[in-house]
Amino acid sequence: ARTRRAGEPPLEGGWIPFFGVALSYGRDPLAFLRRTRSKCGDVFTCRLAGGYITFITDPFSFPAVVRQGRNLDFQKFAQSISCRVFGHVNFNAPMYTSGFQEVHSLYREMLQGPSLTLITQSMLGHLQTVLWRSLPKGGAWEEDGLQSFTNRIMFEAGFLTVFGQERGLQAGGAGPKAGPCMRQVMRNFMVFDSAFPEMVAGLPIHLCVRAWLARKALVETFYHAYLQQHYCVSALIQKRMDAFDRMRVDESSKAQTNLCMLWASQANTLPATFWSLYHMLRSPEAFQAARAEVDRVLSKSGHQSSGTETMISISKDQLDSMFVLGSIVEEALRLSSASIMIRVANNDFELTLDSGQTAAIRQGDYIALYPQFIHMDPDIYPNPTEFQFDRFLDESGQRKSDFYKAGRRLKHYLLPFGSGASACPGRFFAMNEIKQFLALMLWHCDLELPHSGAPLETDCSRAGLGILPPTHDVLLRYRLRDRGANSGGRREGQKEGEGETDGEKKGEEAGGLEKGKALVKTD
Ligand code: HEM
User: Ligand 1 center to residue 156 CA distance, Å?
Assistant: First the structure.
């Protein structure tokens, strides 16, 4: 154990040697950090599982950390976790430095500007192909778990958009089918992802046997030689594969970095899509405003009412003009995001905080920002645990970006995607794909949550990893939209008890429901 030196933040060591405060932190990180902040002030150091982490909790001091490129490194920590979990070589090694920088700059190039428009359009096509396969024909209602439904649609559409389609899986005319391979890939992904908290905490993957087997199977499908047989592989993956080939990395490491991309592009997007649809369906005002927006924007471009398998187009400008959908997604992200931004101190140095106070930081220590502090701050967001669909809309119905704490405007008020050099490069694509999914569901479907009672809770065991999933799934009923009936398309608390068996069956496959867990009726 170490003793606090002059100038260093208060030290919260805990009473368990080595693990320090890991147990109390692990039970409920936000509650633990709040307790420690009220005891120690805005900046404090905790002993966590053998390391020392200094938490900066004052949002006005976030920029001071995000800007500290020279003294604080984000790659070291991210790489150490990534190697352990995915199994690839450590790209922090000097021989890979310049090649890995190239890979990084590709993210910005391929996930912004004109490339973003292309990948977004590709996602829209895949979403519709997959959705049409799932929607019941002729006005019949279908039932499924909401989580299993969103996972199924988004996983397959996202996978096809990023990694393309395996040759031979096309079904004539009807578009790509969810063949056994896709279902297996998704099942393996869910198994691998569910062991993520343990693997990040340091448990060797060989001890999580199912996750280890799932990773092995996933990696086998990601060898370059195999992916080169796919058609419609995104430019992002093609260029990334070229860059890794030039770096002379071994073939299995290359395949493992493709698994990283699968995880990065899916693990947060799936629960974020779930929460966006869930909250929208639970709030009558949100649903009405969102449907009115989608109907207004899409009718203008001449799309007729649905009911037939027509592919619709949504241009970049149209998507950008869907501010209500944007606000619903951002509000869902605010409520469910529990990411942690970690940097490693390269040297001993003094961090100057917004208040002018300084904190002495030791080389090798971690600095952490925990954005949930901001997202759940009642001073910034009144009634912070409540879903308010229009929180991110200003008076003129455009995106709101002025949020205040103690009368001062905040630079960082919403951080589900991190910030600064380590900010998620897929953030624009993620927002677009979730908005597209919501728009398609609103345009084509009537939707119901028959057993919507008390709000679902988030599963805190994944705190620190990004968007928290729900603790359990809920039943969703859906059918092709009945425009004539003008039913509003969204009802709650009706037709109790129908179709659980069918829903459970699909849910197990899509990771929404665990075997043996019933779709929960919360009322
Ligand atoms: C709602 C969905 C998403 C959320 C909440 C999310 C969140 C995040 C966060 C918090 C980070 C780490 C930031 C940090 O350490 O400061 C990250 C990194 C990353 N994300 Fe996302 N992400 C999402 C979707 C996506 C998508 C769709 C893609 C790609 C198509 C993507 C690609 C990446 C990559 C490649 C990194 C690592 C970047 C690096 O190494 O610098 N993400 N994401």
Answer: 19
- Kindly report the protein residue whose alpha carbon is nearest to atom 11 of ligand 1: 424
Shared-domain flag, residues 304 and 367? no
pTM comes to: 0.91
> Which residue is closest in CA terms to ligand 1's atom 19?
424
CATH of the domain at 56: 3.30.43.20
Q: 351, 370, 388 — which closes off a domain? A: 388
> Burial level of 162, CB count in 10 A (0-12/13-18/19+)?
buried
Q: Check residue 334 and give its pLDDT.
A: 98
Question: Vertex 186, ends 182 and 192: CA angle to 5°?
Answer: 145
Report whether 468 contacts 423 (CB < 8 A): no
Same domain, 108 and 174: yes
The answer to whether residues 173 and 300 belong to one domain is yes
Listed residue (459, 451, 486, 388) closest to 146, CA to CA: 451
Strand order in the sheet with 445-449: 142-145, 475-480, 445-449, 490-492
Count of structural domains within the chain: 2
Tell me if 109 is assigned to some domain.
Answer: yes
Name which residue sits closest to atom 39 of ligand 1, judged by CA: 422
Residue nearest to atom 16 of ligand 1 (CA): 418
* Binding-site residue ranges for substrate: 84, 268
Strand partners, 368: 55, 342
Helices marked H in 235-381 — which ranges? 235-246, 251-266, 269-282, 284-300, 316-320, 323-336, 372-375
Residues 79 and 128 occupy one common structural domain: no
pLDDT in tens, 50-100: 789 999 999 999 999 988 778 888 888 888 889 999 999 999 898 998 898
Ligand 1 pocket, mutate which of 424, 458, 467 (most atoms under 8 A from CB): 424
Q: What whole-number distance in Å separates Cα of residue 303 and Cα of residue 138?
A: 20
| Comparison of pLDDT for 180 and 244, the residue scoring more | 244
- As given in the structure block, the two tokens for residue 140 are 């019949």
DSSP annotation string for 478-515:
EEE--TTTT--SEEES-STT-SHHHHHHHHHHHTSS-T
Clarify whether residues 262 and 328 are in a common domain. yes
Instruction: Give me ligand 1 centre to Cα 267, in Å.
Output: 9
Give the residue ranges of the annotated binding site for heme.
424
Q: What domain range is 275 assigned to?
A: 99-334+417-510
Please state which of the ranges 31-40, 325-334, 467-476 shows the lowest mean pLDDT. Answer: 31-40
Report pLDDT for 205.
86
Ligand 1 pocket residue status of 420, Cβ below 6 Å: no
Q: Looking at the structure, do residues 189 and 293 belong to the same domain, yes or no?
A: yes
Ligand 1 pocket, residue 415 CB under 6 Å:
no
